[in-house]
Amino acid sequence: MPDKAVVLVSGGLDSCVTAAIARQRFEPAFLHLNYRQRTEKRELKAFHDIADFYSIHERLVIDAAFFGQIGGSALTDRQIEISPADLHSESIPSSYVPFRNANILAMAVSWAEVIGAKAIFIGAVEEDSPGYPDCRQDFFTAFNHLIQLGTRPETEIQIHTPLLHLKKSEIVLKGMELQAPLHLTWSCYQEEQEACGVCDSCALRLRGFHIAGAEDPIPYRNRPVY
Q1: Domains of the chain by range and CATH?
Q2: Which of 50, 63, 194, 197 is deepest in the core (most CB within 10 A)?
Q3: How far apart are CA 80 and CA 113, in angstroms?
Q4: The pTM is what?
């Protein structure tokens, strides 16, 4: 029987493809956070839809409302405007949730210890890293060391970031190759019925599908060409 892995599944494109990759070697257990983000309900639906598609029985949804209490991000504070897409910017965008990945990974490590998982998969992409400091290789290398220091001596948990060095178009192609349910995913930062098409996440996704020569299967209110 394969080793178990905790797979962080937001419901977005990257996490869906990451789940498809994780299943090739591990028995996946899906983890999702509700953290008072604008599209919380839609992302939760995508999470369960993807989990159902892969017949995942072991799944955990954590209420991380403290992100909303802390604020500091346009995703969790509606008084902060979500910046329009700027794929050439190297500054930290308003959608950055302070130290989110560290918090999420800490929860994943806790659950992994409890269920005996040997790996944690996260769909981080360095293409996003000019704006998101917690999507960089150095961050995950340091966190793997932290796991070694902060868990039982016999614990063997490694963070896997299979998409980290891929372009979004390569992620789209990988998802298609693995027949991942990309039609069930949701990436928009601000809309739950039709994706806005103009936030950073929509722009990265649309550009990825365009370069890959594929049609994005989810509905958009606007479909600019990036």
Answers
A1: 4-187 (3.40.50.620)
A2: 50
A3: 37
A4: 0.96
